[in-house]
Design a protein that fits this description.
By secondary structure, chain A is an alpha/beta fold. Chain A is 44% helix and 23% strand. In chain A, strand 4, helix 6 and strand 5 form a beta-alpha-beta unit. The longest helix of chain A has 21 residues. Chain B has 286 residues and is mainly α. Classes of the chains: A alpha/beta (306), B mainly alpha (286).
C-alpha cells in the first residue's frame, strides 16, 4: 500500500467551500484546504503536498506570489501546480508571470480535473531528469546548461565530497543520503543568494553549479564555509575534538578518517580550449585531482589559458 | 489529572505556530523586504526570539527535507536558504502576534540565551550555539500554557497569589504537569533534536538529564542567573538556588561564577537595548 496522494487546495472563494474537497477525497486523495493565502507557504514548506490546486478567480498579488515562490525553489518546483481559472479569463491569463503546470476552467468538470491531476504527475516525472534524492536537475539538464555557457564569461564548478565513501560505510547510507541532501541545498542556496545560476546533481556525491566567472570564487567560498558549518551537526563532540573518526579499510586495517569536506574545481568557459561539453568535464577531472590532494575543503581554478 | 495532560498533548499536536512580539515580526519582514539582507542578519534576529527560533528549527527538521538533527539557527538558515525564510516572513500570519503582557517572558528567554552563551564560552564548552539555543527555548512551555490554555493559566496565576508558591508548583497542581514537560512535548513534536529537548525538559531537575547533562546544567544555571539579575520576568519572583549537581557537571569554581556574573551584567545591558529596539519596531516604522 502506498500512502494516498496529498493535495492542497488554495483559494478563498466558492471552489474551496463547494464539493471539490469531497470529490477529491472520494478519489482517494488526502485533501487540505487553505482559505487564507498567507498560511499557504508555511504549510507547504513544512509539509510539501504532491499536487497544489489553486483557485485563481480574482487572484490577488499574494496568491500569484505563491506560484512564483514555489517554482523558484528547486525543492518544491517539481510539485505540479494546477490553476482553476474562470473560463472567460483563461485566454488572457499571464502564463509568463504565473508559471502554472496546467489549468482547468471554472465551472469545473470534475472528471477532467482528475485526469489532469494524474497527467500532471506523470508529465513531471517524464520531463524532469531531477535526481530523486536531491530533486536537483540531472545529467541531461546539466549537459544542456554547460553547452549554453561554453564560450561565455561563465564558470562551471564541479563539487564533490571528500571521504564520503568512508562516511557512508561507517555511519550508514541513511546518514550518507542526508549529507547529499545537505550539500545539494547548500549549493543551490549559495548560487541563488549570489544572484542566480544553475545547480545540478551528477550523481552520488558529484555536483555541478554554473555562475558568472567573477562570482565563481565567492560562491565556492560560500559553499565551503556553509558545508563546514553543517559538518558540525554530523559528528559527535568527541569526533569533532579529535578531527577524525575510525574506519576499517578493505584489508581490515583501522584508519583515521578526517571529517567531511568539499573539493571544488572551477572551469572558466570562455577559453579557446574549452570548445565543448566534453572539454569542460576533462579539465574538471584534472583539476579535481589537485583539489583532492588537500585534506581540507578547497577550490582550484583552471588558469591554463592555452 | 491525566486527562488534562492528554488534552495538552492533543493541543500541542495541533500547534503549528505560536505568537511572538509584533516588533520581532516587523523586523523580520523589514529584513525580508530588503534584497541585500544577509543570512547573518537573519540568524541574529531569529536567535533572539524563542518562537521564531522554534519555528525555523521545526521547518528544517520536518521529515520532508530529510535532515535528521539540525540544532542551530545558523545551520537551519544555511539549509533552508534566505529565500524560504523571506517568503515565510512575508506571509504574515505564519507568525501570529502576541500581546505585550508576554514581553517579560520574551526578555527572560532572550536573557537566558545570552547567559548560556556567556557560561558556555567561559567554561570553554563545545557546541556553544546549541547551548544558547536550548536556553532560549527553555521556557517555551510557558507560551503554550498561556496562549493555548488561558483558563488554566489564570488558575495558575491566582494560585500563585493565594498561596505564594512558585509558578512551577502552581502549574503542577493545576495541570498535573509543568512548563518544562509541556515545552519538551512541543519541542519533540516539532522534531527538534535531543540536545535541545533534554535541556528544556530538565532545566528544573538537572539530575534527570541523561545524554546532555552539561547542556542541561548550563541552561539551568542561565535560568537562575537571569532571574537573579532581575532582567525580564519569567512568571514569578522566586530565584531558585543553583542545584549542586549543576556545579558538579560544570566543574565550575566560585571564581568562574564571579567572572560569568560580571560579564553577564554587560551583556544584559546590550540585551536590554535590543529589547527596546524591538519594542520601538512595534509600530512598523523601524
Amino acid at each position: 500500500m502506498t500512502a494516498p496522494l496529498r493535495i492542497v487546495v488554495v483559494g478563498g472563494g466558492g471552489v474551496v467551500d463547494g464539493p471539490l474537497p469531497l470529490r477529491l477525497q472520494s478519489k482517494g486523495y488526502q485533501v487540505v484546504t487553505l482559505a487564507k493565502p498567507d498560511e499557504v507557504m508555511g504549510f507547504i514548506y513544512s509539509d510539501p503536498p504532491d499536487v497544489v490546486l489553486m483557485d485563481l478567480t480574482d487572484a490577488t498579488e499574494e496568491v500569484l506570489a505563491i506560484i512564483t515562490s514555489l517554482k523558484d525553489d528547486f525543492f518544491f518546483s517539481t510539485i505540479p501546480v494546477i490553476g482553476m481559472i474562470p473560463e472567460a479569463d483563461a485566454e488572457l491569463f499571464d502564463w509568463e508571470r504565473c508559471p502554472l503546470d496546467d489549468y482547468v476552467s471554472i465551472p469545473m468538470h470534475y472528471r477532467e480535473l482528475f485526469t489532469r491531476i494524474v497527467l500532471s504527475l506523470r508529465r513531471l516525472r517524464r520531463v524532469f531528469d531531477n535526481n530523486p534524492l536531491t530533486k536537483l536537475p540531472g545529467n541531461t539538464s546539466i549537459q544542456r546548461a554547460i553547452e549554453q555557457v561554453v564560450g561565455r564569461p561563465m564558470a562551471v564548478c564541479y563539487v564533490d565530497i571528500n571521504h564520503f565513501k568512508q562516511y557512508n560505510d561507517v555511519y550508514g547510507f541513511a546518514h550518507g543520503d542526508e549529507v547529499i541532501r545537505m550539500i545539494a541545498r547548500i549549493i543551490s542556496n549559495s548560487v541563488k543568494e549570489a544572484g542566480g545560476g544553475f545547480a545540478g546533481h551528477i550523481g552520488g556525491d558529484d555536483f555541478v553549479f554554473i555562475v558568472p566567472q567573477e562570482q565563481a570564487e565567492a560562491v565556492s567560498e560560500r559553499v565551503i564555509a556553509n558545508f563546514t558549518a553543517i559538518v558540525s551537526e554530523l559528528f559527535d563532540e568527541e569526533v569533532k575534538c579529535n578531527g577524525y573518526y575510525l574506519a576499517h579499510d578493505r584489508k581490515g586495517h583501522e584508519e583515521k578518517v578526517p571529517l567531511l569536506g568539499v573539493a571544488i574545481a572551477i572551469v572558466p568557459t570562455d577559453y579557446p580550449k574549452i570548445a565543448h561539453y566534453a572539454k569542460v568535464a576533462e579539465a574538471a577531472a584534472e583539476l579535481k585531482k589537485l583539489a583532492k590532494k588537500s585534506h581540507k575543503s578547497c577550490f582550484v581554478v583552471d588558469r591554463r589559458k592555452y | 489529572m491525566t486527562a488534562r495532560r492528554d488534552e495538552i498533548l492533543e493541543i500541542i499536536r495541533d500547534t503549528r505556530s505560536l505568537p511572538t512580539l509584533p516588533g520581532v515580526v516587523n523586523k523580520l519582514q523589514a529584513l525580508s523586504e530588503n534584497r541585500k539582507s544577509t543570512i547573518e542578519e537573519m540568524a541574529r534576529l531569529v536567535s533572539s526570539d524563542q518562537i521564531l527560533c522554534a519555528r525555523v528549527l521545526r521547518l528544517v527538521n520536518s521529515p520532508s527535507y530529510g535532515f535528521y538533527r539540525v540544532s542551530t539557527i545558523t545551520n537551519a538558515l544555511i539549509l533552508l536558504g534566505v529565500n524560504v525564510i523571506k517568503s515565510l516572513a512575508l506571509s504574515s500570519s505564519i507568525f501570529e502576534i502576541m500581546e505585550k503582557s508576554i514581553l517579560g517572558l520574551w526578555e527572560h528567554s532572550l536573557g537566558a540565551g545570552v547567559a548560556a552563551n556567556v557560561i558556555a564560552r567561559r567554561l570553554k564548552l563545545p557546541e556553544v550555539e546549541e547551548i544558547s539555543t536550548a536556553a532560549l527555548l527553555h521556557d517555551i512551555g510557558k507560551v503554550i500554557i498561556k496562549e493555548k490554555c488561558p483558563g488554566d493559566f489564570e488558575q495558575v496565576e491566582s494560585l500563585m497569589k493565594a498561596r505564594d508558591v512558585t509558578m512551577l508548583e502552581a502549574e503542577r497542581e493545576v495541570l498535573g504537569t509543568d512548563h518544562a514537560e509541556v515545552g519538551e512535548w512541543l519541542v519533540r513534536s516539532w522534531y527538534l533534536p535531543d540536545k535541545l529537548s533534554e535541556p528544556v525538559a530538565c532545566h528544573h531537575d538537572v539530575a534527570r538529564a541523561e545524554a546532555h547533562q552539561v547542556k542541561t546544567a548550563v541552561v539551568h544555571l542561565a535560568d537562575v542567573l537571569v532571574k537573579a539579575s532581575g532582567f525580564g520576568f519569567s512568571g514569578d519572583e522566586f530565584v531558585p538556588r543553583i542545584q549542586p549537581v549543576a556545579w558538579e557537571r560544570l566543574q565550575m569554581t566560585d571564581a568562574d561564577l564571579a567572572a560569568i556574573v560580571e560579564e553577564l551584567e554587560d551583556k544584559l545591558v546590550e540585551a536590554k537595548n535590543f529589547s527596546l529596539e524591538i519594542q520601538s519596531a512595534d509600530d512598523g516604522t523601524a
